[in-house]
Amino acid sequence: MSLPHALLGLINYKPATGYELKARFKQSVHFFWNAGLPQIYRSLNEMKSKGWLSLTVQHQDGRPSKKVYSLTQSGREELLRWLSEPGEISESRHQLMIKVFFGNQSGTDVLAGHIKDWRDRHLALVRMYETDVPSLLERYGALVSSRGDAFCWGLTLDYGKRHAEMVVEWCDQALKDIEGLQQGGAASK
Amino acid sequence: MSLPHALLGLINYKPATGYELKARFKQSVHFFWNAGLPQIYRSLNEMKSKGWLSLTVQHQDGRPSKKVYSLTQSGREELLRWLSEPGEISESRHQLMIKVFFGNQSGTDVLAGHIKDWRDRHLALVRMYETDVPSLLERYGALVSSRGDAFCWGLTLDYGKRHAEMVVEWCDQALKDIEGLQQGGAASK
DNA sequence: TTGCTCATGTAACAGGTTACATGATTAA
DNA sequence: TTAATCATGTAACCTGTTACATGAGCAA
């Protein structure tokens, strides 16, 4: 369980409603984690009942009321406790790698098609990391920024970029290898 | 939903029981996907009721009977259909990156500790990809192997290794940056 | 007038994990 | 005699997704 802690971290920058939190996810950590609104609302309720959050209702004219959540002392403690805890090994469920693993059953043409797709998507991601994302982080950073925050966000950004680049390189090599296999020699029993 | 398809792929090499499939997962795709026994048994039942699998019960002396599943024609078709389908973008839920993102809230010492841990684990993974895993794949490959299968398995192996190497490199850079931040300049507002 | 943004949620379902239950064989 | 391996599963629970429900304001 970890979504509640991600929410604690975001709310700790600045109190927020569930709806706003959804948007903050999109602007910040959504490359590494995302969450739907129903799940956010559900989590906020649980967190409140654990005493991690306090709630202020803001009435608005002509719009639904806002439920603005803030961290309580106990919420702040829980966040720090979790952040200090050694992380669990994250399980990646990697659909494409399964398809690659069984690639001999689908045939190398199908396989090469998937890999080309994947390469394109990750190349686009690399571009995004280079152009769109920094400005996004900057805009988001403007809300609450300290130099330390910006530094940490930069680290995750760098990770995402390296990851996407690694994938592109792997795809290139794999496509070369497949070509070699198709031309070079018989690839059956 | 994709576990059933991974199971189809494994059974297609050779008929198997639920228990054996769990072991095969461990020997083959478990870097990219894993599954518990309850889930495997549940999936096998569903797959059978969809007509993808046929079942033979093998009685054994002094041991519980085996339920050996094989692919039906319809199962083979479903597997090929799924393998040809373009893959969904896999959502990685990356706990450590969340902790990095909020690293300024926990402090750079805690953060550096996590990253060191992670570096160690991935360095161990790199070593494993270099030594243990190839022999594992070979042993597994001996069961059913064709050159094409071995080739595809090698591709996933290469991906895993590249990934682990990339993580180690990122960790090294991040640790350097953190050090620089701690020495170089004030890291507050 | 069509669709987007703001703002709340509920209900049902799908997928994955953990705990519980059984019981024989075999190697340390 | 203790623990691991073989072999089956059920029940409960946690998490995440999708579909449904409401309703005002505003821009194209």
From TrEMBL, chains A, B:
Domain of life: Bacteria
Residues of the Transcription regulator PadR N-terminal domain: 7-79
Coiled-coil portions: none
InterPro entries assigned to the protein according to its UniProt record, in alphabetical order: Tscrpt_reg_PadR_C (IPR018309), Tscrpt_reg_PadR_N (IPR005149), WH-like_DNA-bd_sf (IPR036388), WH_DNA-bd_sf (IPR036390)
Transcription regulator PadR C-terminal domain segment(s): 93-178
Annotated protein name in UniProt: PadR family transcriptional regulator
UniProt source species: Syntrophorhabdus aromaticivorans
Taxonomic path: Bacteria, Pseudomonadati, Thermodesulfobacteriota, Syntrophorhabdia, Syntrophorhabdales
